[in-house]
Amino acid sequence: MTTIDKHLTRDRKQRDSVREKSMQEQKSIIVAILESEDPQLVESLTDHQHALCLEYYAARLAIMDREHIIDVLCNSAPDLTTAIVSEGLAALDPMIRVVHKNVDLRKHLASMEAFLTDFIKTTKPKTQESSLKLNFLTVEDFLGLLQRNRHRLWTYLHDFCHGCPDLRDTWKGWMKDAINLFKRQSKIDSHEKTNAGNIESRLQHAFSKLTSDQRKSLLEKIDAHSEYLTRLEKLSKTRMQNIIDNVHGKSRADIEDISGPGIYASRWQALLDETLITPSGPNGPLRSGKDVKGIRAARKTDNQSNSDPSNTNMAILARGESTSPIPPPDVYVVTEALGLEFRRIVANISRDGLPEVNHRSR
Asked: Is the per-residue pLDDT at 358 higher than 60?
């Protein structure tokens, strides 16, 4: 455990070197860490000890992630999070006071409580009365939740518009201006220089610096990825249409689809499935995210795992369902050839307009 803690305190270059060795030699990350410190530590390592070390390593990484998030949100200098919240509340404070003065919020707070109660009830897994089969949460369940409670929102909007006509007109004017702004931006001449166009031109320049063979190989992968995204978009629209048909009582195929519409969730799931995972034993081939999908967290006790009916991941896998039915193409050659340059482009554009910072050596 001490060796693992010591490894986690090293700089990123050293940790990446150990990880690269683990992948190249098809060894567990635990074995690679121990060998980097003292090869004799591996000789007496049992399978049970290796499994415990893997659980400890995963837990330490999770703790480090949380600590870094806390540092960014709470301990950064300057404290941007507090400043954003303070400025937001200061801007909304006059409006909140007007609403509090002119609208009876008691019944709306009761409506909010009723909505939250219904939300909790909806998200709890349910079993069929005739069997122990678990009913999965679907997009339709949440759509039904919104439909059952939409009258609460309408009641609040009615009271708000009736009691606060000035605020009503202010928000109405703001929304009209926002819509007009988006309309104007959508009509911008394609030759006019914008951030998006700037990225595209820089990527074209980076692409033009590749050899002809590289460009040909990359174009094939890019076209395949474009077709993949198009198919995902069509699938998303089909799922959305099924939901709309169900709302209006139209007949549709009796298929329980828990994934719902949206191409980003499918792409995110595909990235998780492709993520490389260290071998489960001291030595062996690398695994991928799809190989460990549904495996319970190491810090979850056996009693919780066996008694918790909400463990839908395992049940989904047992049914053979997939949240990303369309396999994505392998675009590693594209990210390998243009990934570094793309990160540089994004970093340069993100600094546009920011003041120069003089770094003083210590």
From this structure: no
Round to whole Å and give the CA distance between 146 and 140: 10
Q: What is the DSSP letter of 77?
A: S
Prediction pTM value: 0.63
Q: Which two tokens stand for residue 207?
A: 């692409």
Element (H, E) at 177: helix 165-186
pLDDT (tens digit, 9 = 90+) per residue, 49-86? 999 999 999 999 999 999 999 888 888 777 878 888 89
Structure token pair of residue 269: 């799931």
SS3 sequence of 282-309: CECCCEEHHHCCCCCCCCCCHHHHHHCC
Q: How far apart are CA 50 and CA 56, in angstroms?
A: 10
The predicted structure's pLDDT at residue 294 = 64
Specify the pLDDT at position 107: 92
Nearest partner of 104 among 146, 162, 154, judged by Cα: 162
Angle, nearest 10°, between helix axes 332-350 and 195-208?
A: 140
